[in-house]
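User: Hello, can you help with two protein structures?

Assistant: Certainly.
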Amino acid sequence: MTGLGTLINVAAVLAGGAIGLVLGGRIPERIRQTVMHGLGLLTIVIGVQLTFESRNSLVLLGSLLLGGIAGELLRIEERLDRLGLWLERRTTGKHERTLGDEATASPASSRFSRAFLTASLVFCVGPMAILGSIQDGLDGDITLLSIKSGLDLFAALGFASTLGVGTLFAALSVLAYQGLLTLAAGLASAVLTEPMVAQMTASGGVLLLALGIGLLGIKEIRTANLLPALVLAPLLLALTGGGA
């Protein structure tokens, strides 16, 4: 069944997130803080590993610079934060914020949106999400996505217990992102070469580094505004002749 791997992944995120929410209130703050720091450190380690997938450092730099400019012009971070606030109101009934407050809200202003964005990027960025979805779409092989589902279950548990209910909504990102990749697997496999996928993965690694820094409380980075780099990375590599 095509798409089974993504459905399993979505179920794993929901299950892990639900368990994390149930346990979250019973876990002492110092333990939750330590778990958060552990997730931040792990996110940085994974980000470093993925960044080394880059086949061309100049292309990586160019995709991040141009992607960051595009993201700032499109105000992706602000739009995602507004989406998180809207979902928060719809699910929790909170109406403390006014429209004026939302317009000036910072990425850190909504715990819900931070959980949604952080978990979505962690679950969707990486070679397993890309290659696993393509394998699932081409021949129904869900091996990679099954392994990823196990990892995401524990990650969702950790995120939900520390960041809250926004983690559960990251399952929508997984469903949309991996589902679209699976449906377009035939086209994607014909267009994206292995070096292009590696370059896209490296760009994702930099985004994970930024997330990890935020999770450790070192510096809040507008990570979502760097998302266009994921699209620009393979395109720039192809334009420079390195995508073959």
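That covers the first. Now for the second protein you mentioned:
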Amino acid sequence: MCGYCSFKVIAVEFNASRLHLPRFRLSVAADLCVETISVLSDTTNFAVLDLFTERRDLMSLPVIESGRPIGLISRNIFMSQMSKPFYHELYGKKSCIAFMDKEPLIVDANMSIEALTFRAVESGEKALADGFIVTRDGVLAGVGFGLQLMNVVANMQAEKNRQIMHSIDYASVIQRALLRPSNLALVEALDDAHLEWQPRDVVGGDFYHFARYDDGWFAAIADCTGHGVPGAFMTLISSSTLAQALQQLGPRDPAALIAEVNRGVKGMLGQIEGGHGSSESNDGMDAAFLWFDNASRTLRFAGAKLSLFQLDPEQQAVQTVDGERMGVGYLDSPLDYQWTNKAIHVPEGSLLFLTTDGLIDQIGGAKYIAYGKRRMRDVLLAQRTRCARHVAQALLDDHQAWQGEQPRRDDLTFFCFRP
């Protein structure tokens, strides 16, 4: 007799889908545990050979002493060794510990799948190829296999990704809802205008703000640090700071508003010199703020690394009104920096354009270079007689053709309008 222990063999296919894992607690090693037979340390190799011959489904065989595992015999390794010439005669009657792995991966049944995964990687290929031993209070409970573990980890990761994407999708709903009042105000204030907002990912790091007043209107577009989720967080910080600044200062001084937003962002992110410790953030935004006075048809523009493009009816070229080369927020933006307003008279029929760098910096074309301001100006000039919506669509079509098969580099936001 071979002296093996009477653990029940369960020869069933393991289903690693998330529906077969616990839904209301973290998965643990016990969820991968398959009951198996084991052999005592004094069991002969002939007895082990008989077991492997009889049980084709038996891939790994624990070796125990006093109920506690001391090693693991791999079917593939054992059968390979015993098939060598003279190994039957030399090792057949000897203890099975001759061919067992004396340092198998042994884990407690309550170990989390995450911790088990790290332990399996540390153990090397053998834990994935030959499996691992699962114990309860040090006593053998069963074995687990690398394929099961990989399937479970893959499904757990897929579930995490699904949950994350669901959260991001809902964050996009919230972000778009925050922009909706600006869209409604724009429709009420301007008959000929188009505001394009395309996040590179589901959520974006660009935002805009538009508000209508009795004597004019205020508009802003901004490109916050990053895109995706980090960028979206920055838009919440920046847009809320802008809303507070508008309540305090009103809409008629864009330069003062940018300065106030600069102080607010730096304060919220701890980017103020003399603060406690050093800031872990060096984030901010590029922005363009506008105030248009209905009576005088005067536009006040203040820009932080963004420019205003103007095409008057009598002009044969697009004029550029540059913003200042100082970003909003950021460690190197002085807390007391003062932006300046630029007053621009806007004749009837003039076309004006603001954009973040997502439009200009997109790589494409035959030489894989940036789209650039020159190409953008050419499209504006060619479409100058059309309404803002058609100008915007022509620009998007040209931009898409330029991009071709290249990936989108950044969020894209622009404001095209005739006051």
